[in-house]
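#lab-general

N.A. 3:47 PM
ok so I finally got the sequence cleaned up, no stray characters, all 187 residues accounted for. can someone with queue access submit it? mine expired

B.Y. 3:52 PM
send it over

N.A. 3:53 PM
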Amino acid sequence: MSAISFEVKLFKIKDWTILHLPSEQSAKLPSRGMTMVKGSLNGISFKTLLEPDGKYSSGLQPSHWFQPDKKLLEEAKASAGDIVKVELESTKEWIDPEVPQDIKEALKTSAKAQDLWNDITPIARWDWVRWIRAVKTPETREKHLEVMLDKLNKGMRRPCCFNRNLCSEPYVSHNWILLTPTANTFL
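B.Y. 4:20 PM
back already:
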């Protein structure tokens, strides 16, 4: 795949700065679901997971998004409301997800589950992390942790019945669709 180049305005959802790909650029990526990319933001290199915005399942024009970290934004001299230059290309070299503390603690309770976690691919670990965080209540999250342990202990390498085209970050989504920016989300 050749590099995708575009300009886009960064916006805020709550206190996160979001880079939402134009749908015509997102369509050039190899997957409607999560996709690992490398690229640059205003000339500053990065590698990240692009999340689906969830619009694929709703019949709307789907795309991808990510939250540039503070270091990338500082080095790129960019903030919400700025138009940034982006260059992306998909990569098969997946980075490991940041594993939430409750998942780490759950894995410590079972050597068998921990061993399988260490053996699965980074993509599979991303699936587990996204599946566990894609819930609305602490009770449901706890249930997902229990199910994860049970499945890993049975040798299952990925969660089943998880739609990889949904936006799995509840902080910036509603009904598994990335929130739409409004006029005040650019500042």
